[in-house]
User: Fold these one by one.
Assistant:
Number 1:
Amino acid sequence: MIKLMGVEKKFGDQPVLQGVDLTIPVGKMTTIIGGSGSGKSVLLKHMIGLLQPDRGEVWVDDVEISRLSGTRLNDVRKRFAMLFQGAALFDSLSVFENVAFPLREKLRMKGPEVVQRVEEKLKEVGLTGMGHKFPAELSGGMRKRAGLARALVMEPEIILFDEPTTGLDPLLAKSIHDLIVAMQRRFGFTAIMVSHEIPEIFGISDWVAMLRKGKIVLMATAAEFQRTTDPEIQEFISVGGTVALPGSRID
Amino acid sequence: MHMIERLGAWAVTRVREMGRMLLFLLSSFTWLVRPPFRFHQIMKQLHFIGYRSTFVVVLTAGFTGMVLALQGYYSLRKFGSEGLLGSAVALSMIRELGPVLAALMVTARAGSAMTAEIGIMRITEQIDALDTMAINPRQYLIAPKLVAGVLGVPLLVAIFDVVGIYGGSLVGVDLLGISEGAYWNSVESAVEWKDVYGGILKSITFGLIVSWICCYKGFYTRQSAEGLGSATTEAVVLSSVLILVGDYILTSLLL
């Protein structure tokens, strides 16, 4: 379980997080929403130790990671994977090599075993036969799929998704969402997603949390979240169109 | 008072920056000696910094040796000492011009590319991706480049010196008519081991400066295209200035 307690973060004089308290349920899909520049990605990066809070604590099970560094932090990170906004594929490596990268570098895996696992993941994300291509030759959607394959290949317990559908058209965005949900249901990892895609996220998330003015103002199941009476939250989620969506995963 | 405050703030920022640069270097070397050892990465960087800089280094060395011989010949002729042309060219190349010019060429060709490559990796979150995979970017990206700089620049300087001396011979012997025996005899009698040793020491130092500064500037690039452009410019300018300053300090210590 990931737990943030009183997390504060400033960049220069600009406060971004101002006392975030958040507990992420295990094995569920939790989505964090909030306005542009509200600090959602910053919050996500605190969970994996890419950023350290000025104050507060970040717990991953029984390990407080906010002051860890080096090997001890890496030991915790081995349980994580992250899909970045732009997929963050290594430009100089092919799709196959990108997906194989953590296997070769972390598990020191070689030969046919690598090929088998990479091909399997590429198939799962719908990129069969695309392994030889380089990231520059892929469309936005394919890059996200390749990034997802790389995130899945180590079979992590927790996957962080930083706006995985940014820059994609609605159909592609839906296909990426569907893929993430399918993978999460199949492998049961804890998924934490930062997204702007309202109302779609209510149909795919178990839990939804809203970040506003540097704090989590509401965390609830997707269905409860939509029923909130807070006028500011209602206004925010109504902008996306239909408020109530069928198929929320926890009601 | 306001000006003193600003001066103080500027000084504190500079000192902090220097501290961060030093820590960056030390932590990268610390990661170098920890397993897994990235021999393949080091060879790849050595190929990029060393082998792929050979052409520009050979070209620069050839013309430097040639112009040195041309200038040296007309200066020495005033004193009737044309026979010393070989020693003048060889000592200038081995002691000064070889290490400095080869390092400047590496800065321009490989150093700027290193900054741009690492900077783009920073902007597109590829460095963060390494971190999330529990792979230390300093170990995977930076340390191999530092080693390649320290090994590659001395090898290029050796090539630079040899080609430069042959370039001098081409002009001095073949164009200006100095005796071939006198030229090479002068080279042999003038160059001592301590000259070569000094050149090697300088080239190792310059190799470290180039790879260190260029990696650092790329690693801490600000998150924009403009930031990347500034980082690349700063890396080239700072490396070049430090090479020249370092050259003066090392020369004064070695003489």
Number 2:
Amino acid sequence: MNKAQKRTWLCLVISLAGISLGAAAVTLIKIMQLNMANTDHHTTFRLLSLLLTIPLILIVIIGARFPKKIFDERDKLIDRKANAVGIVGAFVFLGAASWFLGVITKMGSIKVVQITLLVYLAAFVWCFISSAAGLIQYGGGGKDGKK
Amino acid sequence: MARNELKNQIRRLRFDNGEMTQQQLADRVGVTRQTIIAIEAGKYAPSLPLAFRIARAFNMSIEQVFQLEDGEI
């Protein structure tokens, strides 16, 4: 397993954590809106924002400790394909989530907080899908013998 | 529809050249060992410049290292 693969694994784990936190935040906001009408939403959103920045900080730290290195033409090709798949995945996620919030829930519009969370989640979905696509193309890695 | 499969003799050539390891070949041609593994297994088709570098590492022509097998599907 080369450094590019290790970096991809780390990004996969952190993006998964980011997605989980984002999904938890969306659920929490929804529950609050349904059950606690008098709750101080601003304080909750501030706390959630703080919580959601943790994975972002981790991504920045990983970016600094494991700078993106392209070792050869295969790494370059894998990186390019994985990023393309990630971008498509993020757009599909944004479209599907917006459609769900706007049409299925019959709200007709999306709140600023929700769209902020969607963009946040889309960034992690991009990271997650591109990492997964990269790992699939690497084929697990590190299993082959030296000879 | 024509399907082209790229076969190669890298594994045999490595052993014929003093049991060269994948890492040694990778260092010679400037790629990672994983890329050599992928090429040997036929999972990755190298670019033309890399194919030339690999052939040169064995002092052979590109056709002696890589063969294109045509097949109809």
Number 3:
Amino acid sequence: MSTASRVMDLPEERAWKLPSRGRVGMLSLIIGESALFTIFVVAYIFYIGKSLTGPTPAQVLEVPILGTICLLSSSFTIWRSEHAIEHGRMRAFAGWLAATILLGLIFMAGTAIEWHKLIVHDGLTIRTNLFGTTFYSLVGLHATHVVLGLSMLSVVLVLALLDRFPASQSERFAVIALYWHFVDVVWVVVFTVVYVIGR
Amino acid sequence: MSNLQSDLPMPIQGTLESEKARRSRSTALLEWLQGWLVTVDHKRLGILYILYSIFFLLVAGAEAIFIRIQLAIPNNHFLTAEVYNRFFTMHGTTMVFLVGMPILFGFANYVVPLQIGARDMAFPRLNALSFWLTAFGGMLLYFSFLGGGLYGAGNAPDVGWFAYAPLTARTFSPGNATDYWALALIVSGFGTLGTAVNIIATIFSMRCRGMTLMRMPLFTWLYLVVSGLTLVTITPLTAAQFMLLIDRYLGGHFFDTQAGGSALVWVHFFWIFGHPEVYVLVLPAFAIANEIIPVFSRKAIFGYPAMVAASVGIMFVSLGVWAHHMFTVGMTSVTNAFFVLSTMLVGIPTGIKIFNWIATIWGGRVRFQTPMLFCLGFLYQFLIAGLTGIMLSVAPMDWQLHNSYFVIAHFHYVLVGAIVFCIFAGLYYWYPKATGRMMSERLGKWHFWLFVIGFHITFDTMHFLGILGMPRSIYTYQPDRGWNTLNLIVSVGGFIQGIAVLIFAYNFIVSYFKGDVAGDDPWDAWTLEWTTSSPPPVYNFAEEPEVRSRRPLWDLKHPYDTDWEYEG
Amino acid sequence: MSKNEGGTSVGWGLSQVRQVGSSVNRSAIRAWMAMGALSILPGVAVAESAGSIPNMMRPEATPAHQILSLTFFVLLITGSIFVVVAGLLTVAIVRFRSRNAGTVVEPPQIYGSTQVELAWTVVPVLIVAVLFLTTARIIFAIQDAPKPKDALDVTVVGHQFWWEFRYPALGIVTANELHVPVSPVDHPQPTFLKLLSADVIHSFWVPRLAGKTDLIPNHENTMWIDPHKPGLYLGQCAQFCGAQHAMMLLRVYVDTPTEYAAWVRNQQKPAVQDPAVAAGRRVFETEACMNCHRIAGTAATGVFGPDLTHLMSRSTIASGATTNTPEHLREWIKDPAHYKDGALMPAMQLSDVQLDQVTAYLATLK
């Protein structure tokens, strides 16, 4: 041991490479956000079937298949977009990015239509019963994150179209993409809990 | 823009005579003020955090004094029930969220970049944002005394710092006091989250050449652990606060027992936050002790890898013990037994730490300067706090002692006896680095001895009040219960602590102007922050340091007996 | 200073052993004073007012007894740990203090020792194992104790800020003062409490009988007591429940079989109907009192406040805030905030004549 550290120029010391702060920061944020979502998910699961009045999930919820497919495929498009900017193919980057935003918008539109139906047609609001409270809170929390992600992506897209987002910024974009992947993964959990287990 | 500002030299009053002559006094003052308000320098933000916390320490301390005047004699009418309930709620909330967390993150802000040889935090602007969010949260909370809302002014939160549902429901807490409480904690919670992210990124990505993870000073290691724990601790509270506000504003039913909601869900969520929170506060205290005990014992820390492992171990175990705050809510016997076991397990890594500190002192040459005195007080008191903690982890004993003054005594042993003692130790230790001047040793010793005496008069006595059946959170008590004399003693101790803190505050201010000049390395210490000037320049280090061991300054001072030959 | 702490905790416990079952006397206090500075404190407390102290170290029922014996065991272990560790620490500080301030010679640097560190990891593991097993045994013994067939059932409902006691099998409803039969060791007659809450979380705690258990809305809890000696046992709400949490006091009367039977007989009667106080009854029935209070055998059937059918059989009012005398009763009705600011009972703005009348009426409800 001690003889090893006597050697002045260890390889690890010559090449002093540390992880990028953006990635570390985003991963930390994601860990924190996961804990936030965990609490809402636990509350949702705990209150399944505990509402004193209707409507119940089985009566009113429809599985949002289109929205789910769109959101999940947006993980693929953003990955292509990351790949493109790393290799300096800026047009492909903007194209895949636009596709990602479009898919996200379709998902949000799906949510809007679903909520409109639930509120106007089924009379389910956040104050109706425990299902309403937990449903709108959990799905709404996720939707808020989608909106946040879409805003960041849109800013990047606008900058990219104005040629103000050079390929040298690929690391920053990778950090945003990380967030978008996280939002997708959370949807898998929310979808499972709300539309599979909870229905 | 703000970056530019922080690059200007510090225009502290009295240091720039020639410039002052050219400009009017008020312009200079405004510039000085602006320099602090828009700063993104980690050292200035660290100082802002610490000053902010000391201010609230005095505020919440004053609340404690009022509480103790009220309880000094039975059937007292010094405070009404409502005012008392506000004061104990605000005392607890303030001490945890506006004193404990900000001051500890203040230390991190100031010291961590210096210790790892970095020029700033990973995200300086996020750092400023985090501080101002925290500061705004505190101001929002205290604005409730003035703002109040529907039910008139002066309607501060009065539901306890734990704010158990359904007492926080609109039905039982009308007005806006509870909303101030929830909103203020959400806002400062975002600040805390930002700081935690920042510290983690700084430690992972900003270390100077040669500082591998296992060569980081233990102080930095513990802040890495604390920040990781904060990420998964503060967010559950934020989630629960969101739910509370959804209930109160949007008519939700998360904690609405009339609509099938469960009060226990809040209690669980609160303690999923609340228990690890104790470790979020105590691990930085350990961090400070890990710096000071070796330096003032003149020996390297004993068992560095075990200390790291124990800290990480405490972090993980602490996430699985929350329900020991809930032994009386009627969980099954098996659940109770599980949480007894998980709680007792915390004692093992904690024991390792205490033994390693003793072993560090063993064979050393202990110097009894003020920082070390506070650390030694910490060691005894933390030992006792741990042992009363074991008593409370024994569920049947907890059925008796829960929510009694024994619990109050226990957690003040942790929060004051351990954490506040370490905070004082840390303030005395790094004050010369931050200001270039020493705090007075003579006043420091007065502060220490008065504080330690007052502390024991107050909190040792409280254990007995708990055993004699006195519950917490009561604004007064009957004269026939046998609590009169003991309560008077507790109150007297409280005043002695108050005087000690005032001596500290005096010392803190006066030493800034009149203290002895410190020099770069007044304690003959070993970590990187002592290599640069006191106070350090904005860029911290003229050239980026490179380290080969955990104690780079030791290596420098003892070129024929360097650490890196021995560290495994 | 801190060094004495653990030693005295043990000492305090041991001196309590001597106390159990015997009344406080001078020699006991003198013995306490001999235990050292800190252990005088409980002595002071006991000297202040013997008998009514809710002292968990003087148990009179099985759960409290079992907890106390476990407490002694835990105190023994933690006390020993304290003596060893604080002793080591003190030796280290004294022995290795810097004797010569000017010296620049550093002591030998020691970085760690695997064997030593392993030892002080294994020993705590063993201690935890022993503590856990002992604790688990008592948890199961108290919490999962079988309920005998002839156990008395009482439902306790917590309200802001008073206690409601229902005896379903006996048809009795009363408030704030719980009467249970004594449960001698050779002929147990335990009482099982079903704990509910009408509003927020409360906690039932009478230290000399048992540990506390919370009363939670929408969540039923149970606990049991078997007081071995007749007498009055004090307690109070132990979970912060709002403005007057401090005045949510609790009295448990443990009656001899004869006393208990007499109490039950009286409680089961409808309220006294005395024509001399008819005016007061009219006030009670017309001035909204009856919206919240019940008096059996009259039109008053309210459920939000305490049942007043046998109000005068209780020794306190306002959940123990003051003693139950006609003067206090009158003041309480006139201005509840006088005794209990924040209590949910409103001041009804009665005239002095009405106050006299309604107090006279209530004073007949024996």
Number 4:
Amino acid sequence: MKNSVLHVTDVHKSFGGLQALSDVDLNVEEGTTHAIIGPNGAGKSTLLNVCVGRLKPDHGHVVFNGEVLDEHTPDEINQLGVSRVFQTPEIFPDLTLLENVLIPAFASRDGSFSLRPFSKLRKETEIRDRAEQALADVGLAALKDREAAALSRGDKRRLELAMCLIQQPKLLLLDEPTAGMSRHDTNRTVDLLKTIKARGMTKVIIEHDMHVVFSLADKISVLAQGKIIASGTPDEIKGNPKVQEAYLGGAH
Amino acid sequence: MKQIVSREPFALLAFAVVILTMPLWLTPLGANYPDLLQKFAIFAIFAMGFNILFGLTGYLSFGHAAFLGVGSYAAVWSFKLFTMNVLPAIAFGMAFSGLFALLIGYVSLRRSGIYFSILTLAFAQMCYNLAYSVLTPITNGETGLQLTLQDPRIIDRIFVEPGPGLPETNLFGIDMSGYPGFYFCAVVLIICFFITRRIFKSPFGLTLRGIKSNQGRMGYTGYSTRPYTLAAFVISGMFAGLAGSLLAVTDPLAGAERLQWTASGEVVLMTILGGVGTLIGPMLGAWIIKYFENIFSSFNKSTLSEIFSFLPENLQAFAVDISSLFVGEGWHLTLGLLFMLVVIFLPGGVMEGWRRLVKRFSGGGGGSPESAPVPQAAE
Amino acid sequence: MDAILLQFLNGLDKGGAYALIALGLTLVFGTLGVVNFAHGALFMLGAFCAVTFNKLLNLEQVVLDETQKTAWGSALEIRTPYVETLFGDFGHFLIDYSVPISILITIPVMLLIGIAMERGLIKYFYKRPHADQILVTFGLAIVIQEIVKHYFGANPIPQSAPEIVAGSANIGAWFGLSDNIVYPWWRLVYFGFSAFIIAAVFSFLQFTTYGMVVRAGMRDSETVGLLGINIQRRFTVVFGLAAVVAGLAGVMYTPILPPDYHMGMDFLVLSFVVVVVGGMGSLPGAVLAGFLLGILQSFASMNEITSIFPGIDQIIIYLVAVVILLTMPRGLLGREGVMEE
């Protein structure tokens, strides 16, 4: 049995009268890709928001490598090694692609504030090389001096992926990483995510595209109406009647 | 990746040449006299510093005049208490304004957007009101803080016998009025330009631009943004304090009106007019405003009548009437109009206009129709 | 005890002015999403409506009376305002009541100015960043202020209240308290007037369908637009309304504070603080904070207080604003998510 890196225990979150998450328990094992699927409005993005400190759970805890995440601010959580790709891309629209990737590259890993007003960007060749490599990994190297606002939605998502990957996080949270991409780009992204998996990075992925889910996930949890209704390997999930019902029921 | 030849020495040299030859190339424009030249250099520093905060982080401070005023007061007190040498005065000006900026910034930066603007405005107004009332022993209220014959000037007294009149500010014996004063300010400006340029091109500058672009993302990327914005705030506050102390160097008195929020508005205008977030835009903005202020406010009815003397008499009277709205005392009206026109038609300021022009003439043809020629003050 | 009551009363009229200006600011911000730095200029323009009206009434007919000689030996000039020669006692009445009567011209004038401002400038800035809105309206405020300065000069122009309310009310005696609590009538009038205007604005928003749409627009302008309601026209009316409220606040304030060209800016800065303390986008918050800060400022200027904290009266409003902003991030009654970024 592998080590479990991310524990979500008994997390509740409600907005006014709406119970978005109730009694959510989740264990993500080190080095695995854990997919969370479920109908729209099931609370998947809320769950990720709780994990990165965008929302505080009403009660329950999220523990990552022994650290209770809900006691930390978003930047501290990132410094612990958690990066996230958002559902609507969160990039720096006014900056060039290269600069978009340089910023996460400079975020010092020990969390300290470093001014360095006089070190020259131009001279930081090692970091620049890494940034260019990260852009090349997601296939955006040719556009590195373009302004990020001008990118298509799919390209913005790939840029955001590069911004997360350059930090070499221990845990990568992906909220629909292939939405808005062409089939070709989706396949390339899946391939890229597979190579990261080979490097041993733990991933939690929210995805509607079952092709992507089944080609990447080691484990799948199904979230419906704020509750985990099933967890297991892809094969177990495929044969689970409750899952079928949740999806069909959710459609009506 | 191969090492690119640094353009820094070239840029610095070009900048230094442009600044130091200002008396030459401003002569045909009728702006070659020391008072105005000094103002060009000083307000360029003020605007450049403001731009480090507003241009890079996007935090719009409406209270930067407070730091200008603090710098002036600190410098004059240095003249009064210690020595007429300008270096300690500048050091005091920067130290005190930096301290003020640290305190005000620490509190104000807990909020963003318009709340930040209001907080800085509130602090600046507090300083202004206090300078007029309780702090009169320090600020000398409405009269303004001036040199007197009774000032102790303890360091100067060790070396020389005080002369009969009020002493002049000096740099180790060189009087800081007139052209030497300008060249001193010019050298400081060049140093400030160098620092600003370095900040723009550093990872720190990139971090600040990231904060402006998407502050939320900065958090999820592992940055605690407040130390960075605070650093930018303090640096820009110190630039303002430096500018304030240079004002005192060239004319050793300090009045509370320097702290007023209209002065804060002026530096915002300079920055916008030149081009927010660009390296030299704010400086151009400062020059344009000070240049036109100088020209427009010197006009009066008789000069206007001369200008319009070619018109028939009643038409001349009419033209004089209308144009007198915009000159002399009415210079601020022109300023307000200019402000509106720039924000409406050219939000990127002069630098944006320049880029559009270059684009059009280099065959890009991308310039939009409203990119009308803009007054260019330099180069 | 007397002193405290007196200070409380002293804060009411200033609080009323703050509340009225802040009300308009909030209305415009809440519905149109525009931060209007020219709102203080509207207050000032209202005040100058009163000045202009008074000037017009006081245009004088000069008659030389050769039978009487001045000390210089020239004929004595007898000056009588035209309105008095034309209307006799009624003319005199007009002059005496010039401030309240000028409300009648202020309303249409300010409505026109407000609509012109919205149609001519503000509407192009709905989608621009708040910083741009601040800057362009700041520019406009300077322009308005300088034009007024050009035509009316830089000095304050005192206006007098009608004779009937010229003195002070012995409020203490009304309530069986000591005779020391005297309070200028006109300030009392101003307080009542501002309370009336506030009530009128709130009932307009509460009880008319027009107001309902405006309130809905403050919540969610997009949805209201999707319902097929002509939001644009209503925006214009809201802006006109805000301008009228500011103008009225200015007209009636003239006997308390002689208007000059920069009074708008002075009040604007304070009113912005009021709006922020009350909570951006909250109308009751603006009114509450307006009166609260007005009264607080008046208390802070008591000798007993200033002798302990010298200068506190100068900074109290800003100090309170800072404390409230830091402890209650959305102001007293602000809603979540307004102007957060």
